[in-house]
Amino acid sequence: xxxxxxxxxxxxxxxxxxxxxxxxxxxxxxxxxxxxxxxxxxxxxxxxxxxxxxxxxxxxxxxxxxxxxxxxxxxxxxxxxxxxxxxxxxxxxxxxxxxxxxxxxxxxxxxxxxxxxxxxxxxxxxxxxxxxxxxxxxx
Length: 139
Known about the structure:
By secondary structure, the chain is of the alpha+beta class. 45% of the residues lie in helices and 27% in strands.
């Protein structure tokens, strides 16, 4: 009986400890990878949300102007959500003579010297329409 008690109190062998450590390391690596992906996805979703709000706000600004905007392109820079953004608004005629079509591209501002237009670097784009009154001439 004393032999059984002596064996039970021995503890783990070196091989058992190494196997347990290998399992723990594998599980830890998987958890860290998943956490990293989760943070990357959260950052991307935040970027998409902010860009969507900026595009929606820009179209609303254009729709609320007393005088309809001219046909053409306009670029703006702004700070929003602790980031610097660029917008490109393109206003063009639509098939309906009473509407102008507006497309807004939103991109994070890049450091000077980097190439690529706002539409190429855009996080998102949004299209809307602006009603123009019957007495307003298009430009």
